[in-house]
Amino acid sequence: MISRLDEDSDGRIQQREFVRRFGEHFKPLAPLVPQQLHLTLTGNKKEMRVTWVTRGAVSKAAVEFGTDAGLSGFTSVVAATSTYHAGTLFPWVGWIHTAVMSSLNPETKYYYKVGANSAGGVWSDVRDFVTESASPKPVTVALYGDMGTVMPFGFEVSAQIISDNHVAPYDLVVHAGDIAYAGTGGTWEFEYFWDLFFRQVEPFASRVPYMTAVGNHEHYFNFSSYNARFQMPSYAPASGGNGNFWYSVDHSYAHWTFMSTEHDYSPGSAQYQWIQQDLEKAAKNRQNVPWIFLVGHRPMYSSDKDEYSSHRPGAPFATAIEPLLVKYAVDMYWSGHMHQYERTWPLINGTAITYDNNKYMHPKRPAYIVQGTAGALILEQWVEPQPQWSVVRSQEYGYGRLTLQKSSFHYEYLSTLTNLVIDEFWLYQ
Fold first, then answer.
1. Where are the domains of the chain?
2. Contact call for residues 395 and 340 (beta carbons, < 8 A)
3. How would CATH label the architecture of 139-428?
4. Which of 141, 317, 391, 408 is the most buried (most CB within 10 A)?
């Protein structure tokens, strides 16, 4: 069995190997060179948003896109440019550019580059992405939380996703909070790690839409970095919501509702009312979009000993939100926060229904996945004995792959160390 992490196959990464494989991400780029490209859905299937950074100020920032690799007859869209001022010791210096490519045809490969139409403007290499089909079709989604960069294996999991994306391209990436780990405790946040993170994921985030939920490690400086660097589709008419904190989007067969576990979600709060309205609307549209998924950072159920009182049946989070999941027949809740993987049976208030052969057959109640294994330090302890509602628990770096069809899905937990499937299950509506 060959390890992904070390030439010696001992499951550890050595300094020389890390530099050889990932040192390019640490090299300074010229001030006007576009970097950190990432795509985002807008809520309109005929659009795709691209966001990028330059260290220096540029004028006439733009994206050029078209359907041939040479970009002959391209369309140009002027970008909106902004910056922010936050950071510990070395406040961030840079400019964020974002533009929406529109009037896109369905199920079509588009090519694009970003840069500036001003004197001395520099352009990126040409990237590509594929638009959604006009009617839903099977898609594949990468899911994870708690990635970061060098603490210690965010680069490794990103490399795994890059490699897997070359073999079988993803249609969507969902990151359930704790993104760059620019701040890891206290009040200090180092903006350099945000830059490093986006350079780390750029090889796939510049080709696959990258959707996020906010986590506790995004809270620094009142979420300034998170809000400046992401543009989630809360403005879309079908979504509403609140900036990057809570919003929703339809993609193929699934309605994805993203919530903030870092803001008030108690009954009567603005977020709670929005979640209720969004799920009600999604439930009424199930004939067209049959799956309903909720994504948040903190788990509703986890048997990790740390914070167990917050992630057990009857805890405030489950007491507040689980009734909405049951009422509107939400199929799954995905989260991170705990640096482990855990899969539950379909359950309500800790009462689970069990199934044979890892096949959940028409459960009519939500199940829960914690996938906080994408790079942050894993040093967890489990509650013993394992609760009846918990099926599989693991502590190994990796991420989740969801293969979604109209009336069933297949979920796999992929090991970064071995490239093997650690756990898998099927859910049939």
1. 35-130, 139-428
2. yes
3. 4-Layer Sandwich (3.60)
4. 141
Q: Do 139-428 and 35-130 fall under one CATH topology?
A: no
Residue pLDDT, tens place only, 133-153: 999 999 999 999 999 987 668
What is the distance between the alpha carbons of residues 216 and 284, in angstroms, rounded to a whole number? 32
d(CA 339, CA 377): 7
Q: What is the pLDDT of residues 152-180, one digit of tens each?
A: 689 899 999 999 999 999 999 999 999 99
pLDDT in tens, 39-90: 999 999 999 999 999 999 999 999 999 999 999 999 999 999 999 999 998 8
**Superfamily holding 35-130:** Purple acid phosphatase-like, N-terminal (2.60.40.380)
Question: Sheet of 291-295: strands edge to edge?
Answer: 247-251, 254-258, 291-295, 332-335, 367-371, 341-344, 390-394
Q: What is the pTM of this model?
A: 0.94
Q: Which amino acid is at 335?
A: S
Q: Say how far apart CA 36 and CA 7 lie, in whole Å.
A: 29
